[in-house]
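INPUT
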Amino acid sequence: MSYEQALTALADPTRRAVFERLRAGPQPVGELARHLPISRPAVSQHLKVLKDAGLVTDRAEGTRRIYHIDPHGLGALRRWLDQFWETALDAFAAEAERTSDKP
Amino acid sequence: MSYEQALTALADPTRRAVFERLRAGPQPVGELARHLPISRPAVSQHLKVLKDAGLVTDRAEGTRRIYHIDPHGLGALRRWLDQFWETALDAFAAEAERTSDKP
DNA sequence: CTTGTTCGTAAGACATGACTTACGGTAAGC
DNA sequence: GCTTACCGTAAGTCATGTCTTACGAACAAG
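OUTPUT
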């Protein structure tokens, strides 16, 4: 739910691959594991981290669990980034001012 | 420069603290290290990672190096996130549709 | 009730990376 | 020129996290 967790979760390349695969739509764990170079339990562990970060959610469907993207974590990350982006642009403008003309 | 590097760089809490400290404005390495619970070389190493990710830039000023935020890496991250955010909202809407009314 | 899927968790091996101290290099001040 | 301040890099130690195999639980099918 916090942007820190989202950043930590999305840092790992394999976990990011899991997350990006969910972009194609909701999928069960086995389906995800079939297209990834890791074992199914490893996918489950990654999904747990993504779920704790608020990046994915799951629903039960028989014995299978369907995972899909959760906007919450993504939103938290986006808010933090936007807020940072603004001050960064200001600082960049001030820096450009400083290097070009110096009173 | 790529969003993968930016995510990896911002995942570490200490490195994120270094980055967020630069939000207050350009600062030399020693100044950053003074307010952080790690040694100065550690700060240098973190700055190197941030620099490679396009998140910060440095300029020489005497024997000191002033670091400031670089919008490039932040922009790459933002573009990736926005693009993801869109599809996530669509998927979320479709999911809401699915769970509410079922024909 | 038994069998077969699908999945999550536990335990352990292993790699990755973050931090420290030690060292060298560059610029400023006297 | 000599000393001092500031910084980056190298080497080594140590913790964190990712992967595997093994096991048990929940549900559907027969």
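end of record. The interface with chain B takes residues 4, 7-8, 10-11, 13, 16, 23, 25-26, 68-71, 74-75, 77-78, 81-82, 84-85, 87-89, 91-92, 95 of chain A (CB under 8 Å).
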